[in-house]
């Protein structure tokens, strides 16, 4: 990439040098994308290995497995969709496809995060994001107890 861009900078009117630089830039971006996907998959595998001991709830395990499967499926699709978008940035469908697959990857990672934190979408709707049901119930009890206790102590 450095050599191709240097040669293009020396002769910016050359379409051959421009094409060489563009191909080098695409190859670099493709390599970086593959590396980031690989790093994300390694992080997920490390997280799963760490949580394997702690994750006892069968529903959380199932959610984690489903999210992991979605992540594996969509990681390859994200790579392919990103390559198509890089080759055809002027086609709106390639951007929409890439954005859709990216959203699917984000949702899979969110599912892994929710399972790891023992939360579910119903917990988040009730304002208990990031903590389990038992902890939420204890927090509510503590709040109601401190409110009723303060009424009688003042």
Describe the structure.
This protein has helices at 2-10, 15-54, 58-87, 92-116, 121-125, 133-153. The protein is mainly α and 154 residues long. The longest helix is centred in the first third of the chain and has 40 residues, at 15-54. The radius of gyration is 24 Å and the shape is elongated. The N and C termini lie far apart (73 Å). Residues 120-131 and 147-154 have low confidence and may be disordered.
Q: Could you give the order of the helices and strands? A: HHHHHH
Structural class assignment:
mainly alpha
Radius of gyration: 24 Å
Distance between the termini: 73 Å
Which of globular, elongated, flat, extended, rod-shaped describes the shape?
elongated
List how many beta strands DSSP finds.
0
């Amino acid at each position: 990439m450095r050599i191709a861009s240097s040669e293009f900078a020396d002769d910016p009117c050359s379409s051959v040098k421009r094409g060489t630089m563009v191909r080098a830039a695409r190859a670099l971006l493709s390599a970086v994308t593959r590396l980031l996907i690989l790093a994300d998959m390694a992080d997920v595998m490390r997280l799963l290995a760490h949580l394997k001991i702690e994750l006892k709830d069968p529903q959380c395990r199932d959610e984690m497995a489903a999210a992991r499967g979605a992540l594996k499926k969509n990681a390859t699709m994200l790579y392919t969709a990103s390559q198509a978008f890089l080759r055809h940035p002027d086609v709106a469908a390639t951007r929409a496809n890439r954005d859709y697959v990216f959203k699917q990857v984000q949702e899979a990672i969110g599912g892994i995060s929710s399972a790891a934190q023992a939360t579910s979408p119903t917990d988040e709707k009730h304002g208990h994001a990031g903590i389990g049901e038992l902890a939420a119930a204890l927090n509510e009890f503590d709040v109601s107890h401190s409110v009723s206790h303060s009424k009688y102590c003042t």
